[in-house]
Amino acid sequence: MAAPGRTHRYPGIRSDSDLHTFGYRFKPWTTAPIASAAEILKYMGDVIEENDLAPHIRYQHTHHLGEVVERGKPLTIEAIRTDTGEKRFASPPTSSGCARAITATPKAIRRSGRTWPDFKGPIVHPQKWPEDLDYKNKRVVVIGSGATAATLIPAMANDCAHVTMLQRSPTYFRTGRNAIEIAESCAQLQVDETWIHEITRRKILFDQDAFTRKTFEEPEAAKKDLLSAVEAYLGTDYDIATHFTPKYRPWRQRIAFIPDGDLFQGIKSGKASVVTDEIDRFTEKGILLKSGKELEADIIVTATGFNLSRQRRHRIRDRRQAARFRRHRDLSRHDVHRRAQPGLGVRLFPRQLDAARRPRRRLRLPAAQPHEAKSARRR
Fold this sequence. Notes:
The protein is α/β, with parallel strands linked by helices. It is about 35% helix and about 20% strand. The chain has 12 helices and 16 strands. The chain has helices at about 20, 35-50, 145-155, 180-190, 195-215, 220-235, 240-245, 260-270, 320-330, 335-340, 350-355, 370-379; strands at about 60-70, 75-80, 85-90, 100-105, 125, 140-145, 160-165, 175, 255-260, 270-275, 280, 285-290, 295, 300, 305-310, 315. The chain has a 5-stranded parallel beta sheet. Strands 3-2-1-16 form a 4-stranded mixed beta sheet. A 3-stranded antiparallel beta sheet has the order 11-12-13, with no helix packed on it. It is globular, with a radius of gyration of 24 Å. The termini are far apart.
């Protein structure tokens, strides 16, 4: 794996899904569900130290090639050290979950003509955030309205002169307390942490399933709930129809969670704002929009997402392995959308796909005793 801390160091970086989901069962997550990067790194460090995993982890390595030669034989992985360029080969004990790797590269903004060189200030992508970037008292335009933009803007708002979120079209957001009430109640009752983890996970899955069903069965009601939560922060005078009401029904795209409504609090305070328009071109002063308005900026942040792709090509010569990967690759979007965790790279991870396809585990009751079965038949 690549050395930690080399990418994704933008202000306010945090998880965009709850850590009760991503935490390990043998080490339950016990604090706020949406956690900062520092909290996650500490948690992972504790997991590695407590389970003596350090000898099995290779930092500063990039995966180069994987090859399954024959069924039953291990996967050969070629890796390159990023600091020395040295090639290394390894055969991990289990190859079924390692046959594909991903790499994330910044998604380019569609543009025509000579637009990028016109802007004189820095253009930054969150994945490659410069350590020496000074945005204090600067005008910042963040292009995009996904989870990254929603994280960046409230973290920068108090230090910048102003932050503008520029979006081509609105997106849905969910908001709420950065806490799970049932986990807090169980902790107050001094319930064992392992039990709290299992109870909380089941509650989260239950709530997520209920909301997802509602978006399909009662889309207008789900839409009203989402927009009402935004209105509670911004007030009835704010133009929610323009900036926070998408044309599609909820859950057609991933819905980002805004803990404690921090994005909306920044907008309400006037330190941040939202502009819904399309980019015509970049100018020396900022961005010229198709409406004719010019957004002046000292810094432009392109929070436009990532392109996920496999690192090089993986030669799979075993027929069963090849068939298995084709089956995962061809999994319909509807199936992924309904049954897998939103935002997960499900097409790239066979094990997660297996879990998504696996039927739900049902509670098994003890078998009835013979006398109980006879009395039941009499009734």
